[in-house]
Amino acid sequence: MANSITITQIAEAAGVSTATVDRVLNARPGVNPATVQKVQAAMQLMGAGVPSRGRPPKSANYRFGIVLPAERLGFADQVDRVIAQAAGDFRHQHITEVTHRLPADNPVDFAEALARLTDFDGLAVMGPDVPTVKLAINDLVRAGVHVVTLFSDVPGSMRAAFVGADNRAAGRTAALLLGRSLGPDEGAQTVGMFCTDSRFAAHVDRQIGFAHAMQERHPQAAVWTLADLPPDEDEVLEHVRRALAAQERGPVSAAYVLGTGAAGVLGALAAHGRGARLTVTVHDLLEAHRSMLVSGQVTYVLHQDLHYAVLSATRVLRALCESLRGALAVSSPRVEIMTAENLA
User: Fold this and answer.
1) Helix (H, G, I), strand (E, B) or coil at 162
2) Which of 9, 53, 160, 308 is most buried by its number of CB atoms within 10 A?
3) Rounded to whole angstroms, how far apart are CA atoms 48 and 64?
4) Which helix (H) or strand (E) holds 13?
5) What are phi and psi of 142, to 5 degrees?
6) What's the predicted TM-score (pTM) here?
7) pLDDT digits (tens, 9 = 90+) for 85-108
8) Would the CA dihedral through 145, 146, 152, 156 be positive or negative?
9) What is the C-alpha to C-alpha distance for residues 78 and 76, in angstroms, rounded to an integer?
10) Which of 252, 305, 258 is nearest to 279 (CA)?
């Protein structure tokens, strides 16, 4: 009887992840002593000696969490809706998914809330790239929870993989598109780059890719950067309006909004007399961006397949739980260039 008990059954009885049970069985470090006692007590109660090894049965159920910023940002809200639409896919894969919205405006609170999510088999995390969040991810991994980052990476942490578009390539693509709109006298032209939150690695990578490509392709054009804009659109408008009035460079000829706040940025540019015939690139086909694309306020939207990324993250987590070879072999979603002419 003892050998018929599986690691998955012990994990369910103890209320921990299968990875935690495996760590306890192999006496690996990083597991809380109280958790070790819970696992051992569950094994005794079930009469388990040495659980059966190998791949769990196909009917095994897993509990995965998807962690997103709590702020009502357009992108995170859209991902939340995609997760809800994927409920059928999760059930088919015997996955119970729980979405957590954590306060990314305070990285310490985000990290503390993240570190408490130890009762999952795996987590897909979209969070700020700051030391406290890295430490929280490392503690989760040491406790036996598989972690992947989603849409925005936390490099240097112990996460198993990053699932999302190549953001540096996306930034370079934005530079390619906007650079084509510059006139022959590049030296007299300014390209604006606007970012609401540079604590996210996705935004930093987009900035780096954009700046590098502009320097390579259009070294005479000036790149004017406004980073860490306020989250509210009205506050963005006022902040950018004041900055435009104070800056001494030439008029903005093109604009790259690499996060949220496009409406505020475009409102400020329009008030400054730069709203008409301005080439503008933004990210993610949000409803607001779709409307701006149709109206002509936005020229290009760089979009990634959110549904594919969410399902890829859960597939990686499941493969990690089952110790499958090639678990980390995941393709990044392609970045599509959306215009008013190719909207679905």
Assistant:
1) strand
2) 9
3) 26
4) helix 7-14
5) -65, -30
6) 0.80
7) 998 888 888 888 999 999 988 999
8) positive
9) 5
10) 252
